[in-house]
Amino acid sequence: MKIQVEHIDAFSSLPNKGNPAGVVHNGDHYTTEQMQQLASKVGFNETAFVCQSNHADFQLRYFTPGHEMNLCGHGTIGAVYSLFRHQLLPSNEFTIETKAGILPIHIFFEAERLVVTMQQATPQFRPFNGFVAQLASALGLAETEIDTRYPIVYGNTGVWTLLVPIKELASFQKMIPVNALFPEVLREIPTTSIHPFCFETVYPENAMHARHFSSPYSGTIEDPVTGTASGVMGAYYQTFVEQHPLPHTVYIEQGLEIGKDGQVGVHLAGEDELTVAISGTAVYVDTFAIELEGEN
């Protein structure tokens, strides 16, 4: 049996830019093991499976080539765009069930492009108590390239990542990650990814520039444009860098060093507790078939 997989590029309106997501409908037809096998064969940073839900309009499950994720921003954007293409969305506002919780989704059109807005989980931060020189080395940088004005912290709006402030944009071209070293560096949360960023940007409308290097357990090296990491970056900006009157939106650029230019909007709100939503557009690229081993 061959499984149809849609290739959707998220956070870009141009095919083969942004972040590629595999999208598989009728996810309830497959076991967890089959989903993992499909994601491994697809080879994208994440493949999203659209399933039925008793608690929301849809359930989404996300798999890297190596393991399942609780939440994936670009996988959500891709899946919602695919559902829209097939006229399967119940309305412009609906909910999705994820392993990070029930999240509201809103879609609208801007400049004739579909934009998907996705609520994130409540921001969390944890201190990084590792060795900064060891961290810099794992990124292929000198320790002096780390921006010590701001804290290095683990951040989470659905998935943990290590947020690393960098002084200059020029450092991002030099980065050569050694992902196999990450668990030794990230002793507090060894399975997490590393997300370096800076405040110098290529495009003036953006507040931050970033790259995202995957956990070695994911089976990938770099994630071109990351939704959940961008979401927690926006929360980091509000918490540690500059407190803006809320609501406030910051735009983040990513993927430029690897030819996968993309942009994520991060929408910050809340009075007693900071809330985070991300938004982005997407584009259909193609559909291909994957055959499961052991299936006829």
TrEMBL record:
| Family (UniProt) | Belongs to the PhzF family.
Species assigned in the record: Enterococcus saccharolyticus subsp. saccharolyticus ATCC 43076
Q: Where is the active site?
A: E46
Q: What is this protein called?
A: PhzF family phenazine biosynthesis protein
Keyword list, A-Z: Isomerase
GO MF annotations in UniProt: isomerase activity
Please tell me whether the keyword Kinase is annotated for this protein: no
A single GO CC term, please?
cytoplasm
Does the keyword Calcium belong to this entry?
Answer: no
- Which NCBIfam families would you find in this protein's record? PhzF_family (TIGR00654)
The record's annotation in Pfam families points to:
PhzC-PhzF
Gene3D superfamilies per UniProt: Diaminopimelate Epimerase, Chain A, domain 1
